[in-house]
Amino acid sequence: MKRLCFPILSWMCLCAFSSLVNCEDQRIPEDKLLVLTVATKETDGFRRFLRSAKHFNYTVKVLGQGEKWSGGDYMSAPGGGQKVRLLKAAVAEMKSEDQVILFIDSYDVVFASGPKELLRKFQQAKHKVVFSSESLIWPDRHLEDKYPHVREGNRFLGSGGFMGYIPNIREMVANWTGADSDSDQLFFTKVYIDPPRRKALNITLDTKCRLFQNLHGALDEVVLKFEDGRVRARNVQYDTLPVILHGNGPTKLQMNYLGNYVPNSWTFETGCTVCLENLRSLSSLKESEYPLVVIGIFIQQPTPFVSVFFERLLKLQYPKNRLKLFISNQEPHHEQQVSSFLQNHGSLYLDVKSIRPEEEMDGADARDMAFDMCRKDKECDYFFNLDIEVVLKNENTLKILIKQNLPIVAPMITRVGRLWSNFWGALSVDGYYARSEDYVDIVQGRRVGLWNVPYISSVYLVKASLLQAELKDYQLFTSESLDPDMAFCHNVRSKGVFMYVNNLHTFGRILSTEKYKTEHLHNDLWQIFENPLDWQERYIHENYTRMIKDKLIENPCPDVYWFPLFNDVACDHLVEEMEHFGKWSGGGNMDTRIQGGYENVPTIDIHMNQVNYEKEWQKFLLEFVAPITEKMFPGYYTKAQFDLAFVVRYKPDEQPYLRPHHDASTFTINIALNQVGIDYQGGGCRFLRYDCSIQAPRKGWALMHPGRLTHYHEGLPTTAGVRYIAVSFVDP
Ligand SMILES: *[C@@H]1O[C@H](CO)[C@@H](O)[C@H](O)[C@H]1NC(C)=O
Ligand SMILES: *[C@@H]1O[C@H](CO)[C@@H](O)[C@H](O)[C@H]1NC(C)=O
Ligand SMILES: *[C@@H]1O[C@H](CO)[C@@H](O)[C@H](O)[C@H]1NC(C)=O
Ligand SMILES: *[C@@H]1O[C@H](CO)[C@@H](O)[C@H](O)[C@H]1NC(C)=O
């Protein structure tokens, strides 16, 4: 059986199974199509073009490889005469007259479909040469009147893509004598607007973008169309599915966006199909053969959890003798943390360079200098940028990024519960943040893959080979008007280098630094609102979250519950903070800190509000204690209100014990802040009504018991050392 063809409209064919006219015979066979493109160097865009051509089995011949590009700056200015010269030379030698040439740009082009569809649409155009069309006239708008009118569609010629039979193309370029920097578009325009020549060469425009979609002037017309496991770009103005997408003029970023999907790089059904391509394997390497990475660490503002940052850096899965560190610290506040890290662990690394705050080097200079450390190092394979506010939870991040083998790749990190991330999906007209259509889906992980984006920051890996070539300019981060990250991304984009963000894995998050104050000793304690997850990881007992499931809550005396709450760091920080503050009460009955000024059962203590910690403490009680209260005393709901919450100090020669008393609370939380047998002897708590004592308090564990009426209790004597507890009278 043969596929048959019925003419329906002038340009449309219906093929069916029958035996009238043979459809195949009229078609141009796919092997008659040759794609010609000019690429003087292999940019990321060129590789993307080739990949899409290969995907559809196009036969591509590349002209001008290794030649110096002299056709003007391909990012902006007119030019392209070099392309015509190379085309002229190429077609002059071609013999087969029935061959069809597709001459197309490649740095900003991808194929959205295969040769068969392209040739069918070419034939349906019923001309020997078909040029892509544009809605904007360029480069000479005075020629507008000379253009033939079109009933519907774009009126103007675009030279970034055209196709035709060899004899016609040869004839069309035969007269070319221009300079390499002359405009190819103007040359072809003049042929086209000259009626006799247009007729003789049999040229038409693809006015409705059936073959070619130039994006300039058409951004609103083009949308992605997902269907049956495939993805195309659709021109919604003309309801066409262009075969070739061209990010001409200032539409490179939109092309990058479309190129994240087309051709079938990512679909709903398949997910990412390119993510496993071209990987670099590390598994066969000995540790000593691992690529050498310079890690640039930048501290540009006071930042919480800096010591945790360095603990994580130590745990990064990578041979330390293949890592060099460049640490730039602009914050005196963090000097101690940096120097103690370097003192204790610096020698594990192959090399360390650090810039101290006194050097007053600005952010851009430090980043330029860090790049240069890798650029000048013949051994350096990668530069890994790591800003101090990055919380890299995934210890394999560096290996994962290296394996991905991309020019520049950032692991996606986000701010917890927010749409804030370390990449932008699009740029506004003035170069700032704009939200791409897929941004939210990417940030929230509904689309996972590798995404070519216009802006990345905070954490990313750069190939050293780029720093020695495309990115060899020293001052990539320096700009009059842009901040260092924006300046860097701007420079990368203008060199035609692609930046990717990877959200195939969970990598970590980014801290909020805006409200970080540095007036206390352990400022991280105050971060429970700004960075709640980091606060929890830093301070809450490691077994807290599984205590209900695993029944870890103990019941040492009637209605007294005992459970793990703080970790050692929290206990130590709280004690040190109070000792640092130092204004311990005298333990007398007169107490100006409380309402009424009279304390019935005084202790040597410091109230949370004396160190401005009551809001944070209440949040802590609400988040971490209230759920346990409601579990153990069902039906009682608490908002964790308190008038009194304080840290008590027991010392043999100061105040060793507390006489029996009731608490002015519905329930009381009593957290042991240090370790019996190590920090002190004795201590504990006795409930008189039940004659029941807890004599071996555990550091970080909380006692929860009713305050009034039933749980008359006393603090047992501390016989040596110093004992600290944190007490809260909840719901007074
Ligand atoms: C490309 O060619 C290969 C082998 O020649 C074939 O397996 C594949 O299906 C072709 N792909 C397309 C899109 O035609
Ligand atoms: C262009 O060529 C087609 C055949 O490919 C022919 O039918 C048509 O008349 C020609 N048009 C002009 C204007 O010569
Ligand atoms: C080439 O130049 C000749 C002589 O100027 C002219 O007649 C002819 O139309 C030109 N051909 C094209 C395709 O421009
Ligand atoms: C948490 O529980 C595990 C298993 O019961 C135990 O080995 C570990 O010591 C506990 N962690 C702490 C800090 O007590």
Automatic annotation (TrEMBL):
The keyword Signal applies. Its cofactor is L-ascorbate; Fe(2+). Residues 641-732 form the Fe2OG dioxygenase domain. It is a peripheral membrane protein. It catalyses: L-lysyl-[collagen] + 2-oxoglutarate + O2 = (5R)-5-hydroxy-L-lysyl-[collagen] + succinate + CO2. Pfam families: 2OG-FeII_Oxy (PF03171), GT_PLOD (PF25342), OGFOD2-like (PF25238). Its main location: endoplasmic reticulum. GO terms for cellular component: rough endoplasmic reticulum membrane. Keywords: Dioxygenase, Endoplasmic reticulum, Glycoprotein, Iron, Membrane, Metal-binding, Oxidoreductase, Signal, Vitamin C. Residues 1-23 form the signal peptide. It is found in: Rough endoplasmic reticulum membrane. Gene3D superfamilies: q2cbj1_9rhob like domain. It comes from the Eukaryota. InterPro entries: Collagen_mod_GT25, GT_PLOD, IPNS-like_FE2OG_OXY, Nucleotide-diphossugar_trans, Oxoglu/Fe-dep_dioxygenase_dom, Pro_4_hyd_alph, Procol_lys_dOase. Its EC number is 1.14.11.4. This is Procollagen-lysine,2-oxoglutarate 5-dioxygenase 1.
